[in-house]
Design a protein that fits this description.
About 45% of the residues lie in helices and about 10% in strands. Strands 1-2 form a two-stranded antiparallel ribbon.
């Protein structure tokens, strides 16, 4: 979705008839009030991933590492190769913290890691097909969990 596209149905949910009359679809750009521009980008995360993070045994640190990895993933057929040092700097943690999280996700079968030859050396890459498959498999559980969430104002 581009920054100026309208959200899919269900993203704006009026609570009363008066709200429905006043509710106008909001673009991502409008919602973030200038914090997201054409050049700044955004990360698309399925709400199911957020709902299933406990089932997937992802700690808050693992989730932030994963979101940083997903920020580079736009083509499902292509692996991404962000540096652990870049993610660690963004998060304000040690490089080793990022490496432990990615290793944990690889061992859990949530992401694939490969090493490719590039510029005379090896470069580590990540692919997220296993994660997408796992979330799709548990999508009904995600819907059940959604029904148990409390909605606050």
């Amino acid at each position: 979705m581009s920054l100026n596209e309208q959200p899919s149905s269900g993203e704006t949910t009026p609570t009363t008839d008066a709200d429905a009359a006043e509710a106008l679809p909001t673009t991502i750009k409008d919602k973030w009030q200038g914090a997201v521009t054409e050049g700044s980008g955004f990360v698309a995360i399925p709400i199911a991933l957020l709902r299933l993070q406990t089932k997937l045994k992802l700690t808050p640190t693992d989730m932030v590492v994963l979101i940083n990895l997903l920020a580079h993933w736009w083509d499902p057929a292509r692996a991404v190769f962000p540096r652990s040092t870049t993610i660690a700097t963004r998060m304000g943690v040690a490089k080793r913290t990022v490496q432990r999280s990615t290793q944990k996700m690889v061992k859990a079968g949530l992401i694939d890691r490969e090493f490719i030859e590039q510029d005379g050396g090896k470069r580590r890459t990540f692919q997220f097909t296993p994660l997408a498959t796992r979330i799709a498999k548990d999508i009904n559980l995600s819907h059940q969990l959604a029904g148990k969430e409390s909605l606050g104002a």
